[in-house]
Amino acid sequence: MPHCSESQASPSESVEENANLVIRLLIRRPECLGPALRGEGEGLLRAIMDANKMSERIAAQRLGAEAEGAVPIDHPMPAGDDDEDYIDTGAAILAFYCTLVDLMGRCAPEANVIAQGKNDSLRARAILRSLVPLEDLQGVLSLRFTLSNTAAEEGRSDIPPGLIPAHKQSIVLFLERVYGMDDKELFFSLLEHAFLLDLRAATSLDKSDGSESEMGLALNRYIGNSILPALIKHSNFYSEADQHAPLLDATLHTVYRLSKCKILTKGQREGVSDFLVALTREMQPAALLPLLRKLTIDVSKLSEYTTVALRRCGKYYGTSSNTPGTASEEEKRLTMMLFTNIFDSLAKMEYDPELFSKALPCLSAIGCALPPDYSLTHGHEEELYNTSSCSEGPYKPMPIDTTE
């Protein structure tokens, strides 16, 4: 940014004064946005897409994988694998714009200050909105990451060239602080076209052997720091969203699958759990039967990767699409299976204080929800003991024998 020395502030200056100084500099020197400035250039989305494409072409040329017939990009190559002076210009442009957007987002007035209607705060927000349109933010968040399945196997980092999760994290910060997600249609549009795609990408990078993926770790940080907090904050949108039922169902099962990823940190796993509880609390019980079927299988073998399921049992029978306070026969059957599988799984384990502290409230909630005289029928007991964790890992078809 030109004249960046003007932005140096003494320790005694407040955060608000520093933010106002940055915004004043942006007003005086908007050309620091370069091609990302609407009017002067094609906007932030086009600038990020072009930088991403440049970085991918540079990486492809380095690996000798440039598409046949493509014009080689005029960019210096590193002297060797350990060339510390080498700079990927495309990645540098991406980092610059996303860092600048992050800075502008942090300079935005707080929501409580905006609510007071102060002219300076309203003007600052209007200026920031004029610099980066909402459509560009949506477009950047909708861009897909380039995932590599071979890099880790070859001993290379699987972090892709160009766009990475940290870049999107800056965009979400700006979006939340400058525009907000209080519009219901905007929220569901972001969920469908941006957040859900990144959640699915994170689940695809989890490995059954528990080995770490650098891109998987980066995606989980982005999801834990930006996506899940936003989805939890606006959980009130889930209660009356019949037209978005398929989207919510896909999100529910994707995040539940994410909860079993082995490379999640404890804090990230708690964030996933908080979101699942927030979402299922708002959804109708009838819409949760597929998840309940999965839970009955997963809790058959409790571990640190399946404890998220234990938090799912509260308030399940609070409402119903038919008569308030009642449950269907299938709900009762599945819940009884859930109770029995949790109980049997705990009985086979050595005492684990943390695990038992999650399981016992769950058993208590289920016990209070079921009628005192309810029990499984003979046929359902057989189904109970034949459950297995076949949903773990990649799908393996098991065709039936038709030779007889």
At a glance:
This protein has 404 residues and is an all-alpha fold. It is 55% helix and 0% strand.
Topology, element by element:
Elements: H1 15-28, H2 44-62, H3 89-107, H4 111-115, H5 119-131, H6 134-142, H7 165-179, H8 184-204, H9 214-233, H10 245-259, H11 266-282, H12 289-298, H13 329-347, H14 353-369, H15 378-385
Give the overall average pLDDT: 77
Domain count: the total is 3
Detail the poorly predicted runs.
Answer: 1-12, 313-324, 387-395
Which class best fits the helix and strand makeup?
mainly alpha
Radius of gyration: 26 Å
Largest sheet properties:
none
Taken in chain order, the helices and strands follow as HHHHHHHHHHHHHHH
Cα-to-Cα separation, first versus last residue: 77 Å
In percent, how much strand structure appears in the residues?
A: under 5%
Helix content: 40-55%
Q: Strand tally, please?
A: 0
**Count of DSSP helices?**
15
Instruction: Write down the overall geometry.
Output: globular
